[in-house]
Design brief:
single chain; 86 residues; alpha+beta; 2 domains; three-stranded antiparallel sheet; 38% helix
Length: 86
């Protein structure tokens, strides 16, 4: 991990297109400003983790649906189908 010391209005550069600037320093935290090209998403870590979890769930859904369809074709009972009806 690279650690920087920056004061208010000072910045660091990440590559050629991302600037991270210290906007305000307070007792409970630091306010940062991030300038990045529109093609580069910028999220707080907790939001990023929620997005990744949602993507994993979405990626698993087709396999679950395929398994349910196969069970229905074989006239086997399917549990939890009511969630799909909503």
């Amino acid at each position: 991990m690279l650690v920087f010391t920056r004061r208010r209005n000072e910045a660091i550069m990440i590559g050629d297109g991302i600037t991270v600037r210290v906007i305000r320093v307070g007792r409970n935290g630091v306010r940062l400003g991030v300038e990045a090209p529109p093609a580069i998403p910028v999220h707080r870590r907790e939001i990023y983790e929620q997005i990744m979890a949602a993507n994993m769930t979405a990626a698993e859904a087709p396999a679950k649906i395929d398994a349910i369809i196969e069970r229905l074709r074989a006239n086997q009972p399917v549990r939890g189908v009511s969630q799909l009806e909503a």
